[in-house]
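Example S7 (structure tokens).
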């Protein structure tokens, strides 16, 4: 009984040892590499395990590159994996570039991948150009008419400028700026509608792909729509603003006139009050003059006669003026 238990335990130890050995020594990958005529030693595979690099992530792309006729080393792929790159995608990009006869060394492909760009998509875009459709761009001609333009930009990836080059948003912004500049320099919107290809020629001649990761092949105007009359709206807004300014100035002048009138009324009332006050002092002054002998009785009578004569003349003049203003009654016979 004890011998059976001991033999079973020994068998478990053997199985565990074999599993550990197969884990650290991937014999299947080594046999696959030998079958594909890829020379990889067992020590190299064990070293990958020790460096926590999955051997399949390196050996399978290496086999694929070797079958495609590429000269790629194990150390290059392993170093790229340890740097955080996508080994499989880099090898696929190298194979695609090799088939399309595009010069792409492993170092540049790895640098593009580590820069965060899709190197395989870039190679595919070099072979098959991509069409970028811009959003609707609003531009105003010199006659004030707004045009809404949509363009399609055909670009091809520039492998040499993928690292450090600007992306699609820069291309779209530059094309939009070129459209606005071209339309804005046109005398009339009819010129743009008659020859929309002039926009493509002008914008394409500006070299908008400088400093970008793309090469612009063509710029095609997809749609041109007539928008608002911006010039007329601006003139209307300016006229309305001028009207409000004139009304404000007129209101200011009216307020100043009203204030001046109120000031004159107050001044007139003040003067009338002073006259009434002065007239109230006249009898007292005359009485004092009579007492002091400065004014005689005859002088006082003469002064009253003059005042009465003046009042009579004023009454006659007022009655004559009212008779002239009154309507004449026809005399009936």
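Recovered sequence:
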């Amino acid at each position: 009984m004890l011998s059976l238990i001991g033999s079973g335990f020994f068998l478990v130890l053997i199985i565990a040892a074999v599993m550990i050995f197969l884990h650290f020594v991937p014999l299947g990958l080594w046999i696959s590499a030998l079958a594909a005529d890829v020379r990889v030693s067992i020590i190299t595979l064990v070293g990958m395990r020790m460096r926590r690099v999955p051997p399949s992530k390196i050996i399978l792309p290496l086999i694929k590159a070797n079958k495609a006729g590429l000269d790629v080393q194990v150390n290059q792929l392993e170093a790229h994996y340890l740097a955080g790159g996508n080994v499989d995608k880099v090898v696929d990009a190298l194979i695609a570039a090799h088939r399309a006869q595009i010069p792409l060394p492993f170092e540049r492909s790895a640098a593009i991948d580590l820069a965060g760009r899709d190197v395989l998509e870039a190679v595919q875009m070099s072979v098959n150009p991509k069409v970028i459709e811009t959003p609707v761009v609003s531009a105003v001609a010199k006659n004030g008419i707004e045009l809404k333009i949509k363009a399609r930009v055909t670009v091809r990836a520039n492998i040499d400028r993928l690292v450090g080059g600007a992306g699609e948003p820069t291309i779209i912004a530059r094309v939009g700026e070129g459209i606005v500049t071209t339309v804005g320099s046109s005398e009339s919107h009819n010129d743009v509608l008659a020859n929309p290809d002039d926009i493509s020629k002008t914008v394409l001649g500006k070299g908008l792909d400088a400093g970008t990761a793309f090469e612009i092949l063509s710029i095609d105007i997809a749609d041109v729509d007539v928008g608002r009359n911006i010039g007329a709206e601006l003139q209307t807004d300016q006229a309305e603003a001028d009207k409000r300014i004139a009304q404000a100035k007129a209101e200011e002048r009216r307020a100043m006139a009203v204030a001046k009138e109120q000031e004159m009324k107050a001044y007139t009332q003040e003067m009338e009050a002073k006259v009434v006050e002065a007239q109230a002092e006249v009898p007292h002054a005359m009485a004092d003059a009579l007492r002091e002998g400065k004014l005689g009785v005859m002088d006082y009578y003469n002064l009253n006669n003059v005042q009465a004569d003046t009042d009579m003349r004023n009454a006659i003049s007022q009655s004559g003026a009212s008779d002239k203003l009154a309507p004449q009654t026809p005399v009936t016979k």
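Notes on this example. The mean pLDDT is 79.
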